[in-house]
Amino acid sequence: MTVDYSLPKPELGAPVRVSPFIRFCRWGLLFAGIAYGMKRQRTLEQRETAHRANLRAQKVIWDEEQKKIATQRTREQLLQLAKDVNVPIPADFDTQYPPA
């Protein structure tokens, strides 16, 4: 024996005619939203392009700073290593690893 769990279908009335004013407002708001979205996209795109150009310019500066820090750290580590192992520091050490 099977049980039918389906709901009875409601009876729908005749479709209501939507007024032309409401239709005009709906379409108008749709197109206004599309126009706003396009304008907003353009604005955000310009802002992001300027931000990326700024980051590109800053990256060069940051890379130089990191290179200086790495060179200084290497110099300090080599001096400490020479001190720990009791190895004399070469005469041309300052030309190879200039102090900051």
TrEMBL record:
Pfam families listed in its UniProt record: ATP-synt_E
InterPro entries for the chain? ATP_synth_F0_esu_mt (IPR008386)
Keywords (A to Z) from UniProt: Acetylation, ATP synthesis, CF(0), Hydrogen ion transport, Ion transport, Membrane, Mitochondrion, Mitochondrion inner membrane, Transport
Can you say where in the cell this protein is located?
Mitochondrion inner membrane
Which GO cellular component terms, listed alphabetically, does the Swiss-Prot or TrEMBL entry include?
Answer: mitochondrial inner membrane; proton-transporting ATP synthase complex
Write down the PANTHER family for this protein, in alphabetical order: ATP SYNTHASE E CHAIN, MITOCHONDRIAL, ATP SYNTHASE SUBUNIT E, MITOCHONDRIAL
Assembly with partners or alone: F-type ATPases have 2 components, CF(1) - the catalytic core - and CF(0) - the membrane proton channel. CF(1) and CF(0) have multiple subunits. Component of the ATP synthase complex composed at least of ATP5F1A/subunit alpha, ATP5F1B/subunit beta, ATP5MC1/subunit c (homooctomer), MT-ATP6/subunit a, MT-ATP8/subunit 8, ATP5ME/subunit e, ATP5MF/subunit f, ATP5MG/subunit g, ATP5MK/subunit k, ATP5MJ/subunit j, ATP5F1C/subunit gamma, ATP5F1D/subunit delta, ATP5F1E/subunit epsilon, ATP5PF/subunit F6, ATP5PB/subunit b, ATP5PD/subunit d, ATP5PO/subunit OSCP.
Q: Which family does it belong to?
A: Belongs to the ATPase e subunit family.
Q: What is this protein called?
A: ATP synthase F(0) complex subunit e, mitochondrial
Q: Which organism is it from?
A: Blomia tropicalis
